[in-house]
Design a protein that fits this description.
alpha+beta; three-stranded antiparallel β-sheet; 7 helices; single chain; two-stranded parallel sheet; about 190 residues; flat; about 15% strand
């Protein structure tokens, strides 16, 4: 009899066509914001406050479904709709990193921002100001966690992926004594 070790690593979901990158989430989130602004003339959460004056008119090059960060920039900067846009420093950094690298690491950015805030104490910034900054940053992360959960629930997960099923069928056929599954995939 044999033993089997099954390792599922980072990228397992991506390799099977699931749109679980942070950039996929970010585009979904920005699309949600744009659609809310069009329907309600405003959007506000811990990251963004955006208002639009007047009636929405579709125009060439103006996308409602955000597929890249430039689509959002075009919508926000469109002079026809007189959009007022405010974003927290954390939100601006998210957009900037996506714009520059076409990729963003939200957890790492949160950690680096937290380090910068706490470093302010060494420069003489008062504790209550640091606590306020940390509270605002945590509110941003809480919004991201809530919205990311909503996004992940919209993804259609295939019930069975034939390529993977073949591997599990092989395991059943060999009838190992012990099977151990190690899952390094944070999106499980």
């Amino acid at each position: 009899m044999t033993n089997k070790l099954i390792i599922i690593g980072n990228g397992f979901d991506l390799a099977h066509g699931l749109k679980t990158r942070y950039s996929d989430f970010l585009f979904w989130y920005l699309t949600k914001i744009v659609k809310t602004i069009i329907g309600q003339k405003e959007y506000s959460d811990a990251l963004f406050t955006i208002t639009m004056q007047g009636v929405y008119y579709s125009s060439p090059g103006l996308k409602i479904d955000i597929e890249k960060i430039e689509d959002f920039d075009t919508f926000i900067n469109n002079q026809i709709h007189k959009i007022q846009f405010r974003a927290t420093p954390f939100a601006k950094s998210l957009l900037r990193l996506q714009r520059i690298y076409n990729w963003v690491d939200i957890e790492n950015m949160y950690y680096e921002t937290l380090l910068l805030i706490t470093h302010d104490k060494k420069r003489g910034v008062h504790n209550h100001e640091i606590q306020n900054e940390v509270s605002r940053l945590n509110a941003c992360m809480e919004t991201i966690k809530i919205e990311l959960t909503k996004y992940l629930l919209t993804l259609k997960v295939p019930e069975k992926i034939d390529e993977i099923q073949t591997h599990f069928d092989d395991i059943k056929f060999t009838r190992p004594n012990n099977i151990c599954v190690l899952n390094f995939n944070w999106r499980n």
